[in-house]
């Protein structure tokens, strides 16, 4: 059974995820930085640095949220970054952020379903995604869509939470995720389910070599994985 934010609701996971992010959109950026002690900023920098050599001109940022990874992607000097997300609440916060930073001419944020992208095949030089694939209703379908709209030879870079395996980080991480994060998340976001769903969805996600296997299955090549911050997060890369 799929892990969903609102266990008593009958909506699909996709609709529940959109509802959840709409609910917490106003507090999302603050909570991201607060609950990770700012390490999420470092993770994004590491991910985008992997695109420096290829210098992609057209970048698609999947599950862009409020656009933090899209903004970081400007460091590789693309012509344009297109962000897509199913949450109108997150996109509204993101668009306001782009306007304030004067980036609306370089970054376009669009409403879109990552599992049914509105773009033609072979449209983008690179695709990025930070903490989004875990929320896909159908993981293989979402990854297949990334493959479809990526140009041959293009690179995909995916950031996602993973599960530490070494003592004592494994035990500390599990305690924090199950006992600390949900309390602060609920208190600040006012959404009872959002930060309970997060650790549950991380636990259910096929991380590490299992995720590489899925990337291979949907047609990606040169799939690689590197662990960050004692295994709390991973960067996955692949080529079409």
Question: Would you kindly provide a written description of the structure presented here, covering whatever features stand out?
Answer:
This protein is α/β, with parallel strands linked by helices and 240 residues long. The protein is built from eight helices and seven strands. It has helices at residues 13-35, 39-49, 68-73, 88-101, 139-149, 169-189, 194-204, 209-217, and strands spanning 58-62, 80-85, 107-111, 124-130, 150-161, 221-228, 233-239. Strands 3-2-1-4-5-7-6 form a seven-stranded mixed beta sheet, with helices on both faces. α5 (139-149) links the parallel β4 (124-130) and β5. α1 (13-35) packs across α6 and α6 (169-189) runs antiparallel to α7. The longest helix is centred in the first third of the chain and has 23 residues, at 13-35. The mean pLDDT is 93.
Helix content: 40-55%
- N-end to C-end Cα span: 31 Å
Q: Find the count of extended strands (DSSP E, 2+ residues).
A: 7
Strand order of the largest sheet: 3-2-1-4-5-7-6
Q: Per the principal axes of the C-alpha atoms, what is the gross shape?
A: globular
Structural class: alpha/beta
Using only C-alpha atoms, the radius of gyration works out to 17 Å
Q: Please, how many helices?
A: 8
The quaternary organization reads as single chain
Strand content: 15-25%
Low-confidence stretches: none
GO molecular function, one term: demethylmenaquinone methyltransferase activity
EC number: 2.1.1.163
Protein name: Demethylmenaquinone methyltransferase
Pathway: Quinol/quinone metabolism; menaquinone biosynthesis; menaquinol from 1,4-dihydroxy-2-naphthoate: step 2/2
